[in-house]
């Protein structure tokens, strides 16, 4: 069954990472940034460059939890004509060559709501999407999308944050599957990150409540920081730094030759850092 | 909520008015939103809180605001009798202060030490900066760059009051983007900060809480019109941006079947041009800024930029209770263009000696359409929710006058 294999990719990947005795690298990029063609080239190249899991952003005009880098990235993608249908096509295209690397769609609820929840879940599942992270759907709104997604066999990955206290954690984790995304700071993407020892203590707290793998994101920008995080968590998520690398490859809005290679090179450096940090 | 013998039971315990409302926020904010809800319910049930708020509303804001019979406009239109609820006479010049006082008293109860706010026209920013000065709390106001340019008097007013005004350069650089930036600030400074939202939108409990603080307008108006006319009004009219002055006026009358209600949105350059801010008359349901409500959006669910000559109406969303009141048919939602508002702005200035804000000028533009057709014993009660001093530069420019 297709659904079963979707659940399976994330679990299988974390099991493999465990066997290698290392944490994983999760990369975030906005679908369609800077343009459809290059975004697809980057996506295709991510596994070989060392990404263990892929988060693909569904661009939104008003990303309230994102800093300037990812805001600009969303607007570039939308400006280049990105649509939800194109984002789903990217995953379908990616799956032709890669049936092992988990792909998680990440974004905000409104573009999904407009696409139609049932239609979205059917098309995402069919395209080979493994899970969803929807920033503005807390457990209080689980009946909207979370429960229907789980019923379809799509993982619903929840964000836990420093403000999620022990009393609240069980309700946040109740309908979470795949992995838990720990937001290591109170703040927006691209802000100053937290030191690894603070993150370690937070991860230890989460582990008392869940057996799920824990990925940590927000503010992780360098191979060194990613490595330090991968030592204490199951995976480190890097987004804004990759998006900023896209910006470096642009010349007045147009992509210069080597943009794709530049982004993948940074993925390679981050992956090398994470891989060197064996437990 | 489904008890249809009343329109005043909402929201549900999950913050829903019918399908609308809810709590669509990032997890970082969710514990705060829940804490705010608890704290607000406690305060609401505490007579000492009500007394404190009533004291400030009376002695600091100058409430009750008068109910005024606009005799010359009534005569000019030759139909229905027109009354204005004069919330433009409040301290700071608009209804916004009613809500800011309520929220800052709550912030103090909760031990918060820093206030943030978003503003479009600057009226809410001024009101927030004012109550922060009153209670000695630091205040940061987010304001779109575009709005800063067209609301210079209020910008300077906020600075005089000691607020830090942060220009918002993202997106369309207007009210919606100011809200995004305020939410980003809140996510970053959760421990210390209280976010005073200026309208009946945002995650639950804001739509309910802001409505409750603004409903003083309708409670007073009800008593005043009965004193003046011996009966309830036939029609209420209020402008709608996010919808707080309208909810404030309408709420006390929702269960009065004989009272018709009209919310007037900004039609900007005309609904057919696409350059407007009429989310109820020309939008569709979606999720933005923490609530499910009518929005201006494209087929992909991307938020469209609103347009209105009035910065206070220039918002692509609307409070969720209005979305519900539209769907159940209790309130009629219409729109008025920039040009119609400008004409009403001048007419009111010349015939009544009241320079209205551009926001209630939209309400008056609708009154101008319906009053002539209505009988002379029909009573229209319109919320004059703000005064127009802040708009003189915008109006001068639109009329081609040099200041």
| CATH homologous superfamily descriptor of chain A | Aldolase class I
Relative strand content of chain B: 15-25%
Please tell me the overall pLDDT of chain B: 96
* SSE run of chain B: EEHHEHEHEHEHHEHEHHEHEHEEHEHHEH
- The helix/strand class of chain A is alpha/beta
Q: What proportion of the residues of chain B is helical, as a percent range?
A: 40-55%
Looking at the overall shape, the CATH architecture of chain A is Alpha-Beta Barrel
**Uncertain regions of chain A: pLDDT < 50 for 5+ in a row?**
1-7
| Strand coverage percent of chain A | 5-15%
Q: Radius of gyration of chain B over alpha carbons?
A: 19 Å
Report the total helices of chain A: 12
**Looking across the biggest beta sheet of chain B, what order are the strands in?**
3-4-14-9-10-13
Oligomeric state of this protein? heterodimer
Shape of chain A: globular
Ends distance of chain A: 35 Å
Largest sheet of chain B: 6 strands, mixed
CATH C-level name of chain A: Alpha Beta
Strand order of the biggest β-sheet of chain A = 5-4-3-2-1-9-8-7-6
Which chains make the largest contact? A-B, 42 and 38 residues
Number of helices of chain B: 16
Number of E-type strands of chain A: 11
Overview of this protein structure:
The complex is a heterodimer of chains A (279) and B (403). Chain A is α/β, with parallel strands linked by helices and 279 residues long. Chain A contains 12 helices and 11 strands. In chain A, the strands form 2 sheets. In chain A, strands 5-4-3-2-1-9-8-7-6 form a 9-stranded parallel sheet. Chain A starts with a helix and ends with a helix. The longest helix of chain B is centred in the N-terminal third of the chain and has 15 residues, at 30-44. Chain B is globular. The termini of chain B are far apart. Chain A binds chain B through residues 60-65, 67-68, 71, 75, 78, 83-84, 108-115, 135-138, 140-141, 158-165, 168, 172, 183, 186-188, 191, and chain B through 14, 22-32, 170-171, 176-177, 180, 183-184, 187-191, 285-290, 292, 295, 297, 299-303.
